[in-house]
């Protein structure tokens, strides 16, 4: 799992989407309202999450790492990484892309 924080520059959804597509990824958009909760789960695939607006905090059970994220932050979740999340007080909009097994991000 890696978190990358973008510089303190206002980024647009279009710019974030374009960056992911330049990496050969196919991002999809999702959003949730304030304080939405994702219970502990995992995925059989790796994924990259980028926060477009708002905030969300992930908790990764391996090591109990807490990862707060805001606009422009990027999280790389390897396959089968148990995680839960709580959306911040203003909701969240994210772009998400599955990582192909052949990707250097996998």
Describe this protein's structure.
The chain is mostly beta strands and 106 residues long. The protein has a single domain (2-99), classed as Jelly Rolls, CATH 2.60.120.10. The protein has 1 helix and 7 strands, in the order E-H-E-E-E-E-E-E. The protein has one helix spanning 13-22; strands at residues 2-4, 28-32, 37-41, 46-60, 65-70, 74-77, 83-99. Strands 1, 2, 3, 4, 5, 6 and 7 form a 7-stranded antiparallel sheet that branches. Strand 4 and strand 5 (65-70) form a beta hairpin. The N and C termini lie close together (10 Å). The mean pLDDT is 88.
The CATH superfamily title: Jelly Rolls
| Count of all domains | 1
**Gap between N and C termini, in Å?**
10 Å
Count of alpha and pi helical runs: 1
Helix content: under 10%
The assigned structural class equals mainly beta
**Mean pLDDT, nearest integer?**
88
Count of distinct strands: 7
Strand-and-helix sequence, N→C?
Answer: EHEEEEEE
Q: The CATH topology is what?
A: Jelly Rolls
Spans of at least 5 consecutive residues whose pLDDT stays below 50 are none
What is this structure, in a nutshell?
The protein is mainly β and 106 residues long. It has one helix spanning 13-22; strands at 2-4, 28-32, 37-41, 46-60, 65-70, 74-77, 83-99. The protein has a single domain (2-99), classed as Jelly Rolls, CATH 2.60.120.10.
């Amino acid at each position: 799992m890696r978190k990358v924080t973008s510089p303190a520059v206002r980024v647009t959804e279009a710019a974030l989407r374009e960056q992911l597509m330049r990496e050969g990824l196919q991002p999809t958009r999702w959003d949730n309202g304030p304080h939405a909760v994702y219970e502990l789960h995992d995925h059989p695939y790796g994924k990259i999450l980028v926060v477009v607006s708002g905030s969300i905090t992930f908790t990764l059970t391996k090591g109990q790492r807490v990862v707060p994220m805001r606009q422009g932050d990027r999280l790389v979740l390897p396959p089968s990484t148990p995680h839960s999340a709580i959306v911040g007080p203003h909701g969240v909009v994210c772009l998400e892309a599955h990582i192909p097994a052949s990707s250097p991000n996998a």
